[in-house]
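Researcher: Structure for this, please.
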Amino acid sequence: MSDEITARILAELRRDSRIPNAALAEKVGLSPSSCWRRVRALEESGAIRRYTIDLDDEALGDSFKAIVHVNLVRHDQDLVSDFIRMTRTTPAVRACYATTGNADYHLHVTCRDLHAYNRFLDDHLLSLPAVKGAQTYLILKTIKD
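Model: Predicted structure, C-alpha cell format:
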C-alpha cells in the first residue's frame, strides 16, 4: 500500500496525528469512508504502530539534551537486558539505538539541567555492570526532530 495517496495520508498524520478523518480525507482527496479504510489498513498492517505526542522539552523545563554513546564491557545477555530495561523505564532516555561503529548504543537523553544529567549517569547508566563507559555529546540546536 505504497502509493501517492498513502504517502499523502502519512505526511498529514505526521504533521497532526489527531486530525479528524473528514479533514484528512479532504486534504488527500478521498471520501471519508475510503480514507478511514486506508488508515485502518495501515494500522492493521503495522505500518502505523501507534499515535504519539511531540513534547516541547523547553516548555517542560528539560533544557539539557545530549546524545550519549555507550560502550558495554560485556555482552552477557542478562547484563544487556538490564541495560535495555533501564533505557525503556528511565524517562530521561527519549530514544535508544543499537548501532554499528565505535559505540554499542546511542541514547538521546533529555534532563532538566547538568545536575540532573549527572544524577542520571550515576544512578542509572554508569551503575550498570554492563556499561564500560559513556561519551556525551551536547545537543546545541535541533535542526530536524
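Researcher: Any notable elements?
Model: DSSP finds five helices and four strands in the chain. The two ends are 26 Å apart (CA to CA).
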